[in-house]
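Chapter review: from sequence to fold.
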Amino acid sequence: MAVMASVLVTDGHFRKTLAVVRSLGRRGIHVTVGERTFLNTSFFSKYCAKRLVYPSLRRFPNQFVEFLLKEVKKNPYDCLFPMEEETLLLLAKYHSEISQYTYLLSPDLKKIEFVRDKRNLMEFAGTHGIPTPKTFYHPPSSTLWSNETNSTGRALPLDSIPIPAVIKPRISSGSFGIVYVKKKEDLIPSYQSVHERYPFPIIQEWIPDGGGTYGLSALFDEASNIKAAFVHKKLRMYPVQGGPSTLREGVEHSQMMELGLSLLRSLNWVGVGMVEFKVDPRDGIPKLMEVNPRFWGSLQLAIISGVDFPYLILRMARGERLEPILRYKVGKRCRWLLLGDILHFLNNPNRFHLHPSFFHFFDPQTSYDIISKDDPLPILGSAATFFTFLYDPEMKRFLGRR
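The C-alpha cell string follows.
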C-alpha cells in the first residue's frame, strides 16, 4: 500500500482485539485502539500506535457514539473494527452515519439481533436443513410443563425432556447463564432460576462429549459473497464442560465448512461470523450450538494459519478485489494460557492426563493468544485487564468470554 493505512479498533481488553492490533501493526498499519480504561491488554502492545479512552458504552451509550463519530470525522481511518457484541450492536444502529467517514463492515442490526436469539436461530436452522440439538421452547402464553403445545407444535410434558439437558438463555454470549441439568428433579428449579435472570430460556438435549466441538469462521462482502473461511477444533475450554476455547487447532473439515457456510448464506450474511457445532458421538452428526455475529476469541489461530481476517477486511475497505480464501495451513494450534488454560487445568479432574499435556509449552506448532517474544508487554496488560474485570462490576460479566 503506497499510503499508510489507518484503522480504529474498539474493546482493547480482549485477546481477539490484540490479534487485530498485532496483525495489522506488523504490516506497518497505524492502529488506534479504544477502551474505557488505560488498563487493558491491547494498550500495552508495541503495535498500538494511538490510545483512546472513551466513555463507558453500557453507562453512557450516547456519549460513546458521539465520541467515536467525532473521532472518525476528525481522523481519516480506513476502517473501524467493533470487536465486542455490545459495541457492534450499538454501532450497527448508526451504520449509515459512520459509513460516511470510514468503512464499517457488519450485518444489519435486525440480522444481528435475529441470530443472537437462540430460539430464532434454532428454528431458522431447522427449516434450512442444519442439524440442531432437540430443542424445547416455553412461550410466555402457556403454562410451564403443561400438556399444551408450543409454537413449534411440540408438547412440553416433563417426561418428554431428555436428561441430561442444558438450559440456555435465548440471548447470551459464551457460557453466561447456561445451566446443565443432570437429574430430572432439578429441571424445574433450574429452569426457574435461569428464567428469573433471562426470561423464557430454551431447553436442549445435552450433546455428549466425544465427537468434538468445532467453529466455522467466515467473511462475506456486502453482497454476501464468501471471501474467506476457516475451521478450528476446540481442544480445551473454560468452563471445562463448554465455553471459550483455551486451546484450539486449525483443521480441514469439509462437512463443517459446508454446514456453516450454508447457514450463513441462507442468512444473506455480511461481515464476519462464527458458527459453532458440536458433533454428536451417538450419530456422528454436527449439531448447531450458536452463531457469533462478531469477531471470535480464537481469531489469532486463523491469522497464523493464513486466513488474516482483519487484513482482508482492510483490503476490502481500500477497494481491493479479493479471491476467496478457503484453504489454509492445518495443524497449527493456538493457546490462551493466561488465564484460560490455567483455569481449565485447575478445574479439570483429569488435569494430569490432558492431551496435549498442559505442560507442553514449547511445541513449535503452538502459538499463544497473548504471550509473544516479539511483543511481550500485553502479558502485563492482560493482568491489568483481569483485575479490572475482577473488581469492576461493569466488566466482571466479561470474564467468561475473554
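Two observations follow directly from the output. The radius of gyration is 21 Å. The chain has three domains: 6-104, 134-205, 213-371.
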